[in-house]
């Protein structure tokens, strides 16, 4: 709210004007009764009554206008705050490392950006201004009651200890209940997102009955959490109402006795009773606000937890530019690198590796040998626990993030396609590229023929996550995207595994040209892909056990030769 403090100040002034004009009514009524009725009854003089009525009309108009202006003003403030919060949370989530998103499910992320923000919106839209108005009412009316008759004012204030006990009890009980509600909402959203995201697997393995049982259990937890909140409200709201009604009855009895005995004017008693009702009405409103506040506070705790997450891959404090090169290709060096995804389990133990600029290196090895881990470290999706990864001699932790992403592009087995057309997904590699450049990139990897066979060619919608394209078609689009990005270093992590043999051969022919002057790291189980490599590294438990040109390794009869033999080549 800090950026909106000036606007909030103006809105507060409007609330004060609205509050004062709204509270003028009971006082004017008391004046009309005590000062206007006697001359009207005795002499037929209605001037005081007319004046009071005119003042009531003016007060009502001022209250209505100030309320109208305030609502429009506060709506801009509320929308601005929520817009900033959503944008800030979304931008922060994109900066967080893949490790965060691997442990923090997408459903919980969606819950933070939707239902939790909606809880804040409910409070800001309707409850926050009620808090200010009703707090002003309590303060101003308390003073007015003491001024009109100090005895009646003290009777009204005697209700406060009882109200404080009720509010204290509700505060203690409702906090955990609302936090449980937010957690239950997030669990329901997580289950929905996971089920619908894997709907093909769900239907293929007849998972629907089991998912229905799980969803029923989660929905039951949410219903139980909501029921707990409602039970608390069923005690809290009637409790506040009972105290306020009891206090009003006491004031009516005491004030009536004083009025009968001539110690209190009837008009003043009428004003006191009207003010007392308005005095305790805010208590009810404040109790409802507290209900909204507890829900919003629980939601804000969840949002704050996300905003307080720090990226595992922190941006450099003082970015260092990469050296300017005449052509493409950059050298890569892993110096004494140690890495593990979980504490106590090392994937790469003190690995040393140097890849000269322009060299194409293939990484081979069994599953879990560390191939993809090396690729992720080179792309700086993770930082090593010890040692350094350098690009042209510059530590990746010092390289400007934009320069790093422009220099290194990764194509994986499951490249993500965004909703939109084929052309829009290709141009993702270089925003602002012309249609001719997009088409040229597709031609370079041999994807143009496949794309032209689609119903609308480059304008064909790919569907959600590329669902309208086959796995091989999605991969060719991803290759085109990477080529359009024109990186210095290209990492292919099982990038051709989704292609059929003819498409793979076409891509390999294109890669021979594309990788001629680039640095490339290729991870592949199909050894046919290794044919384009200048150098092969065979990994075992994070260590390099063979290193050399494919032909030389084949001639030595080592592990690479054994892998070739097993593959039938």
UniProtKB/TrEMBL annotation:
Q: Name one GO molecular function term.
A: ATP binding
Per UniProt, subcellular location reads as:
Cell membrane
- List each copy of the ABC transporter domain by range: 332-566
Keyword ATP-binding included in the entry's annotation? yes
Query: What is the first-listed, main subcellular location in coarse terms?
Result: membrane
Keywords for this protein: ATP-binding, Membrane, Nucleotide-binding, Transmembrane, Transmembrane helix
Q: Which InterPro entries match?
A: AAA+_ATPase, ABC1_TM_dom, ABC1_TM_sf, ABC_transporter-like_ATP-bd, ABC_transporter-like_CS, P-loop_NTPase, Type_1_exporter
Please give the superkingdom of this protein's source: Bacteria
TM ranges are 46-66, 131-148, 154-170, 232-258, 264-280
Could you tell me which residue ranges the ABC transmembrane type-1 domain spans?
10-295
Q: How does it sit in the membrane?
A: Multi-pass membrane protein
Q: Which Pfam families match?
A: ABC_membrane, ABC_tran
Q: Which PROSITE patterns match?
A: ABC_TM1F (PS50929), ABC_TRANSPORTER_1 (PS00211), ABC_TRANSPORTER_2 (PS50893)
- PANTHER family attached to this UniProt entry: ATP-BINDING CASSETTE SUB-FAMILY B, ATP-BINDING CASSETTE SUB-FAMILY B MEMBER 6
Q: What's this protein's name?
A: ABC transporter ATP-binding protein
What high-level taxonomic lineage is stated for the organism?
Bacteria, Bacillati, Actinomycetota, Actinomycetes, Cryptosporangiales
